[in-house]
Specification:
Blueprint lengths: L1 E4 L7 H14 L5 E4 L6 H9 L2 E4 L9 E4 L6 H9 L3 E4 L3 H15 L3 E5 L5 H7 L6 E4 L2 H5 L6 E6 L5 H12 L4 E4 L5 H14 L4 E5 L5 H12 L3 E5 L15 E6 L5 H13 L1
Parallel strand pairs: 1-12, 2-3, 2-4, 4-5, 6-7, 6-8, 8-9, 10-11, 10-12
Helix pairs in contact: 4-5, 8-9
Length: about 280
Amino acid sequence: MEILLAKSAGFCFGVKRATQMAFDAADQYQSLQSLGPLIHSPQMVRKLEERGIRVCRQVDDADGDAIVVRSHGVTAEELAALRDCGKTIIDATCPFVTRAQEFAAELSREGYLLVLVGEAHHPEVQGIVSYATGAVVVVASPEEARELPKSRMIGIIAQTTQSIENFRTIVGVCLEKTHKLKIYNTICDATSVRQEEAVNIATKVDLMLVVGGYNSANTTRLADLCREQGTSTYHVETADEISSAWFKGAKRVGVTAGASTPQFLIDEIVAKISSL
């Protein structure tokens, strides 16, 4: 059985940077926390906890010497509260997310109705929204965008892990809603590369495995894109979840992973497939 492993599978720049900053901080501070899970990989979060980096869910629970801001960023209110309580802040927010936050603030100041293409419940989106001082609407699909009212000015940005196709379609819908449209493409390059590579591999294999946290939006999107190619696709977190029955009749198997999936999990998946 041939295995096609995506070259881009695994940690992106932002996640590598965040985890390295956290591990470095663990060597400096005796009591260290992250505000929310640092990245969307339960297995990696456990490894961070083994190094003494505890997860706190809200600012009021922060009782350590220092606190790491997760790669997805936090809301403007949470960041202000951390500063007010005098904590040492290690800001591991992905630079691409910071850029989206800055554009949200800019478009709001300029009077645009801000349309954020993304998933309203996602922490990155909630953080970006908090930097907007005017009207803001989160839309996840072209169908939701069609429900938007007409507006004199519309500004559009995206959750960094959105698919470019979804973003482009929603931009087209918004074009019919206004005479003045301002667009910032805030989708991370690494996201686009992973999605293009996953689609390409999915068209060449009998079975596709997508590795990453079930709470990872970009991993879930990779799995969805692979399924859209008509390829049998399984989203898994660990090698223990793999069933040999999936591989009956499969001659070629594709493997990719989300931007927050550590290399050791990818290696374990590939080893498990090879042993079947």
